[in-house]
């Protein structure tokens, strides 16, 4: 047995030894399509020569300099690239090493902002059930996934409160229109502000498109505009976690561009560096930075590896390649193809309740019964079996569910690299379809 702590302590996973394009190769020589880019990470696929060259060049020049004393060129240029044109009023960027760290930074910056502008009573956050913001304790406190929270409940922060997500497949009542359902969710949010005391709320945190826990669940039209209006009315911040859904994954650079709102703080990771280096960060609205500047003039938070030169050089190269190769257009085109292929394959399938997503970020939700939306017994581990069957057929996908909050069906996410070709999209759906058929045949 391995001495490394793996996700499972009972079995060792295969060794990945090489990656090229959308393919991963293991030590046994098997070729696996990285059909979910890991967890929606590998946006450029593997082995992109420009990113590798940029990383090597940065290492030749400077591997590390502590940010208590220095800045570095790659971090400065990455910040310019991300917020130099102030998208949605976001003017500043902070870089760390993961999505969880990004969420921690967002939480702490938001609290510090209100301290600096003389509103110390603001101590509460409102987030959503069935959300995921990371595994560190602050981010886990923000998250609303009951299963992940349960073991740590006694040591999680009590400053986080949860309202319903926008999840029409299961939560919109049959007698409700989309607009009525959205209005109900906005009323629920307003009621939560009132319950806590509106002047005690720091902000509302949400994934723009919910990733792992709900499976590519985008909000209905008008939802985020309604949320933003409530936040604005009460002077609270809108904090959008785009760790999974952002950086082009949904077909626009930022997923919020499709929602008619922009955040006060946005968390980014995964597609920022495409897995070539560990990097995450936050993008911050000018007014938040002004508040801090006029106050202590510092962000009271830091990490040894913040704005790491090599990580920033990798992310800068990833973002440059995305622009040079016009990959957002490919995400849109291949995303439309993926949706079409999934709909053809599963649109009338008795065990697929919903097919949903945006861009190259799609999920199918498995149900025991399509009409009643009855979930499969979690003990059947449907999502895990689909993952294994797909892997046997040379496809890596990202499954979840079954045990989430006890009411949600299993689902699997497909999030191919942005470089995927039409033929590769077809192969992904073909292999995925075969895997699903094999699992469901066993269950009959
Ligand atoms: N936020 C969201 C929406 C995520 O999907 C994830 C990871 O899956 C995180 C935060 C945590 O990111 P990391 O695993 O890089 O810490």
From TrEMBL:
<keyword id="KW-0663">Pyridoxal phosphate</keyword>
<dbReference type="GO" id="GO:0008483">
    <property type="term" value="F:transaminase activity"/>
</dbReference>
<dbReference type="GO" id="GO:0030170">
    <property type="term" value="F:pyridoxal phosphate binding"/>
</dbReference>
<dbReference type="InterPro" id="IPR015421">
    <property type="entry name" value="PyrdxlP-dep_Trfase_major"/>
</dbReference>
<dbReference type="Pfam" id="PF00202">
    <property type="entry name" value="Aminotran_3"/>
</dbReference>
<protein>
    <submittedName>
        <fullName>Aspartate aminotransferase family protein</fullName>
    </submittedName>
</protein>
<keyword id="KW-0808">Transferase</keyword>
<dbReference type="InterPro" id="IPR015424">
    <property type="entry name" value="PyrdxlP-dep_Trfase"/>
</dbReference>
<dbReference type="InterPro" id="IPR005814">
    <property type="entry name" value="Aminotrans_3"/>
</dbReference>
<comment type="similarity">
    <text>Belongs to the class-III pyridoxal-phosphate-dependent aminotransferase family.</text>
</comment>
<keyword id="KW-0032">Aminotransferase</keyword>
<dbReference type="GO" id="GO:0005829">
    <property type="term" value="C:cytosol"/>
</dbReference>
<dbReference type="InterPro" id="IPR015422">
    <property type="entry name" value="PyrdxlP-dep_Trfase_small"/>
</dbReference>
């Amino acid at each position: 047995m391995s001495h490394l702590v793996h996700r499972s302590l009972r079995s060792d996973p295969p060794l990945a030894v090489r990656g090229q394009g959308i393919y991963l190769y293991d030590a046994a020589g098997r070729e696996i399509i990285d059909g979910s880019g890991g967890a929606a990470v590998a946006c450029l696929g593997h082995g992109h020569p420009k990113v590798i060259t940029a990383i090597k060049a940065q290492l030749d020049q400077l591997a590390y300099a502590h940010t208590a004393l220095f800045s570095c060129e790659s971090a400065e240029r990455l910040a310019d690239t991300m917020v130099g044109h102030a998208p949605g009023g976001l003017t500043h960027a902070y870089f760390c090493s993961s999505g969880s760290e990004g969420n921690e930074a967002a939480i702490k910056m938001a609290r510090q902002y209100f301290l600096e502008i003389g509103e110390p009573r603001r101590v509460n956050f409102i987030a959503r059930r069935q959300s995921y913001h990371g595994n560190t304790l602050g981010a886990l406190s923000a998250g609303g996934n009951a299963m992940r929270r349960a073991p740590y409940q006694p040591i999680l922060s009590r400053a986080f409160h949860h309202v319903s997500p926008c999840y029409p497949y299961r939560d919109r009542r049959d007698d409700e229109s989309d607009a009525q359902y959205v209005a109900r969710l906005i009323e629920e949010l307003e009621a939560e502000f009132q319950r806590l005391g509106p002047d005690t709320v720091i902000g509302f945190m949400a994934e723009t498109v919910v990733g792992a826990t709900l499976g590519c669940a985008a909000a209905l039209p008008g939802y985020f505009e309604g949320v933003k209006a409530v936040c604005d009315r009460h002077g609270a911040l809108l904090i959008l976690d785009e760790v999974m859904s952002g950086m082009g994954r949904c077909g626009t650079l930022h997923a919020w561009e499709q929602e008619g709102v922009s955040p006060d703080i946005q968390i980014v990771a995964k597609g920022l560096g495409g897995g070539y280096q560990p990097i995450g960060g936050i993008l911050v609205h000018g007014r938040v930075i002004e508040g801090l500047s006029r106050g202590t003039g510092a962000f009271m938070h830091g990490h040894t590896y913040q704005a790491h030169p090599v990580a920033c050089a990798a992310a800068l190269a990833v973002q440059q390649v995305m622009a040079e190769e016009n990959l957002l257009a490919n995400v849109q085109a291949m995303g439309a193809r993926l949706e079409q292929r999934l709909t053809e394959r599963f649109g009338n399938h008795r065990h697929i309740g919903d097919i949903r997503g945006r861009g190259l970020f799609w999920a199918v939700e498995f149900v025991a019964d399509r009409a009643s939306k009855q979930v499969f017994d979690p003990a059947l581990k449907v999502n895990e079996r689909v993952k294994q069957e797909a892997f046997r057929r040379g496809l890596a996908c990202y499954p979840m569910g079954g045990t989430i909050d006890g009411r949600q069906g299993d689902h699997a996410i497909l999030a191919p690299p942005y470089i995927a070709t039409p033929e590769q999209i077809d192969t992904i759906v073909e292999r995925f379809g075969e895997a699903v058929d094999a699992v469901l045949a066993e269950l009959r």
